[in-house]
Write a structure and sequence with these properties.
Two copies of one chain form a homodimer. In chain A, about 50% of the residues lie in helices and about 15% in strands. By secondary structure, chain A is an alpha/beta fold. Chains A and B meet through helix 9 and helix 10 of A and helix 9 and helix 10 of B.
C-alpha cells in the first residue's frame, strides 16, 4: 500500500505533515510518497526520520509549485500544472500510489482529483463526506461543501457513496437518514421532499428523516444533505464548540476555586476533548472520484495527518469504490437518472 | 401594556406558564390575559398569585379547545375555532391585548397569527427569528423554520425585519450578515448569490457573507438564511450542546477527583449554562405579522415564559412593526418585488 501525501499543503507547513507521515509508517504497513519541494522536504525528512527503517518507507517526489489556501481552485489547477496536489494525484493515475492525502486547499484538491482521475462511473457529482462525533459511533455526513445546489439524484448518490464509505468502521448495513426539519416524510424543502421517495425505494437501509438535533445522538450512521447545508452544519458545529470552550474558560478563570476544580477535572476534559477532536477522526474523504483521496483540515496536526493516512489505507483496503459501483448497480439507475 | 398568554400550550402545562406570567407582572409594568380553560386556570392562578396586587393584573379569558403539539398547524387552526391560540390572537385583533406569547405548537401559532391579524403591509412572507448566544451580544438569526423554500426578496425582507427587531437590544445600526459557505461575495448557493446584491444595494447595514463558524463570535447582529437552513442551525446547535454536556458528564463521573473538581468549578458551569441557556433569551418573535407574537420552546420553564413576556412588551414599546414599515419604505421596493 502506497499513500501520496501533499507535503506542501496545510497551515503548519511540511514539518507537521511529515511528522504525521512518520507516525503513520511506524504504525501501519504502508509507504508514503511526500510530494513537494525536494530540497526542503529532504532536509525535514532527514531530521524527522533518521532511522533507516522509517526512511526506507518514505520517498520524495518533486513538484515545483504550491497552490495556496486562498487561490481559486479551478483556476489554480489550470495554471499550476506542477503543483504538489496535481503531482500527487498523477501518482495514483500512473499506478505509483493508491491514494492521496492533502491538508491544502480543499476545493483545489477536489478539482485536481476530478481532473486527473475523473469521476467514478455512474456518479453524477463527486462530493466530500465528513465525520461528526456522537454519543455512540461517529456519523458520516455528506455532502459538506462540494455541491451547493443539488438535485434528488445527487442526494441519492451521496447516500450510496457515504453508506459504502461508512463500512470502513465495520458498520453493517448502515442506517441512512435524510437531514430535514421535521420527522415526518412530508417535511422539508422541495429538494428533500423529492429525495425522500428515491431513498425510500432504494436498496439502502433508509430510516427516514432526521433532524439537526439527531446528528449527535448516534442513532444513524449516515446523514445526507446538500453541500450548502452540510458545510454550514460543519462550520456551525466547529464554531459552537470553540465558542462554548472560550465562554467556559472565561467563567472558570473568574474564581480560584473554579480554577482548582478545573485542574482536578482536567483528565475528564481531556478525554472529552479527544472524543470531539477532529484530529482523532482523520480527514474528509472525496467520494465519487475514480480513485481515493482525503482532504484534511488546514490546521491539521501530525496526529490528524497520521489518522488521515490510515483512513486512506482503510478505504483502499475495503475497496470503497468497488462497493459503490456494486451498490449503484443494485438500484434501478435509469429511473433515478431522470431525477 | 397587555400581553395575552396562551396558557394551554407547552410541555409543562398551565402551572409553569402561569408561574412565568406571575414573575412577569411582578417585575414589570404590564397586565397578562391567561387564555384557556377557565375553571382549570382559575384554580392554578389562585394558588400562584394569592395576593391582590398580582391577581389584579391578571385576567382569565376562556377558550374551550387546545391545539396539541403534533397537530397539523393549518388544519388544526381551521377545525379548532375556539382554541386558546386563536382566542389569544383575537384579543390583539380586538385591541384587548398588545401581543401574544405561546409555548404551544409553533406552526399553529404562526398560522393563527397570519389568519387573525394578517401580514404586515408589504411583507411577502412572515417568518420566525431566534437568538443565538455568542461571545458578545446575542445574534438574531432569521428565518428559523417558517419558510423552507425562499426567493431573494424573502431573504431581503427577513433582513429588514430582523434588523428592526434587533434594535430592542439597543443595537444601533445592526450589522447584517448573509449566512453562506465562503466569505467572498460570489460564494454560496443560487439563492445566496442572488440575495447578495439585493442586500448590498439596500439601506441596511449589510456587512457581507458570514460563515457558520462566525455565528457564535458576536461580530454580527443579524444573520439571514432560509428557514430550512435556519431551523437546521438551531436544532444542530441545541443537539450539539446537549450531546457535549452528556459526554462531559460521562467523563467526569468516571473519577472521584474529576467529580470533586466539577463541584468546585460548579458556579462557573452554572454561569456558563446561564449564558447559553435558551430560557434567558425569551422566545422567538414572529416577524411580519400585523401585530406582535412570540413563540417559546415547548419545554419552556417559568423563567423562559417571563422573559418572553418581557420581550413581547419591549417589541411593542419599541414599535418594531412601525420600524419595519419605515425601513421597507427606505428601499426601492418595486425593484425588489421582482426578485
Amino acid at each position: 500500500m502506497h499513500i501520496a501525501l501533499d507535503a506542501m499543503g496545510g497551515d503548519h507547513g511540511p514539518e507537521e505533515l511529515i511528522a504525521g507521515a512518520v507516525l503513520a509508517v511506524r504504525q501501519a504497513d504502508l509507504n508514503v510518497s511526500l510530494v513537494g519541494d525536494e530540497v526542503r522536504l529532504r532536509s525535514i525528512l532527514e531530521k524527522a526520520a533518521p532511522d533507516h527503517q522509517t526512511a526506507s518507507r518514505m520517498r520524495i517526489v518533486h513538484s515545483s509549485q504550491v497552490i495556496e489556501m486562498n487561490e481559486h481552485p479551478v483556476e489554480a489547477i489550470r495554471k499550476k500544472k506542477d503543483s504538489s496536489i496535481l503531482v500527487a494525484f498523477d501518482l495514483v493515475r500512473k499506478g505509483d500510489a493508491d491514494a492521496v492525502v492533502s491538508a491544502g486547499n480543499s476545493g483545489a484538491t477536489m478539482a485536481a482529483a476530478v481532473r486527473v482521475l475523473g469521476r467514478l462511473e455512474g456518479i453524477s457529482r463527486p462530493g466530500i463526506a465528513s465525520f461528526f462525533p456522537t454519543l455512540k459511533k461517529p456519523v458520516v455526513l455528506m455532502d459538506v461543501g462540494a455541491n451547493v445546489d443539488c438535485r434528488p439524484l445527487h442526494l441519492y448518490q451521496f447516500a450510496v457513496m457515504a453508506s459504502c464509505f461508512s463500512r470502513i468502521f465495520d458498520t453493517e448495513n448502515p442506517r441512512v437518514g435524510l437531514l430535514t426539519i421535521g420527522e415526518e416524510g412530508g417535511k422539508g424543502n422541495q429538494l428533500v421532499k423529492e429525495t425522500y421517495p428515491l431513498l425510500k425505494s432504494s436498496a439502502l437501509n433508509f430510516i427516514g428523516n432526521v433532524e439537526g438535533r439527531d446528528v449527535f445522538q448516534g442513532n444513524v450512521d449516515v446523514i445526507i444533505c446538500d453541500g450548502f447545508v452540510g458545510n454550514i452544519c460543519l462550520k456551525i458545529s466547529e464554531g459552537l464548540a470553540d465558542a462554548a470552550m472560550q465562554m467556559l474558560r472565561k467563567e472558570i478563570l473568574k474564581s480560584w476555586m473554579a480554577k482548582i476544580g478545573y485542574l482536578l477535572a482536567r483528565p475528564a476534559f481531556k478525554a472529552f476533548k479527544k472524543r470531539v477532536d477532529y484530529s482523532e477522526y482523520g480527514g474528509a474523504p472525496l467520494l465519487g472520484i475514480n480513485g481515493t483521496g482525503i482532504v484534511c483540515h488546514g490546521k491539521s496536526n501530525a496526529q490528524a495527518i497520521k489518522n488521515a493516512i490510515l483512513e486512506a489505507r482503510k478505504m483502499v483496503k475495503y475497496q470503497v469504490n468497488a462497493e459503490i459501483l456494486k451498490s449503484l448497480a443494485a438500484d434501478d439507475n435509469d429511473r433515478l437518472m431522470e431525477s
